[in-house]
Amino acid sequence: MTVPSAEDADAPTDGAVPPPVLDEDGLLRHLGRWVPISDAQLPIVRLLVARFGRLVHATEVATACRDAGYAGTRAALRSLVHRVGVRVADLGLELRAVHGGGLVLDVRRPSS
Q: What whole-number distance in Å separates Cα of residue 33 and Cα of residue 30?
């Protein structure tokens, strides 16, 4: 398995697939499907949707959560990020951890 670098992850997607949309009810919608996003997950998902296909630095994720009132430990934050990844997989999306400290939300790539 190849882990993308921060430089690789900062390139936007090719635009062939529209980005997901987070609506005012906390539903993440993509290609006719949707999943509910918990209040704790909202700050993370907002950042990822706003920068769909591009790198979101780990410090930005932590700051957004802290600013939203999330007071969990680093381990709890990692668990929260993991749950976001599981949630978005239901929409054909993937949350990739990038070597160098960040996350990228993108369309799930077929396994080779």
A: 5
**Mean pLDDT, range 57-80, rounded to an integer:** 90
Q: What structural domains and CATH numbers belong to the chain?
A: 39-112 (1.10.10.10)
DSSP characters over 52-97 = TTS-EEHHHHHHHHHHTT----HHHHHHHHHHHHHHHHTTTEEEEE
Exposure of 34 by Cβ count < 10 A (0-12 exposed, 13-18 middle, 19+ buried)?
middle
Question: Looking at the predicted structure, is the pLDDT value of residue 68 above 60?
Answer: yes
Name which residue leads in pLDDT, 3 or 66: 66
pLDDT band at 14 (very low <50, low <70, confident <90, very high): low
Contact in structure between 110 and 101 (CB atoms under 8 Å) = no
The CA-atom distances, in angstroms, between 106 and each of 60, 72, 79, 94 are 18, 26, 19, 6
Q: How many angstroms separate the CA atoms of 110 and 112, rounded?
A: 6
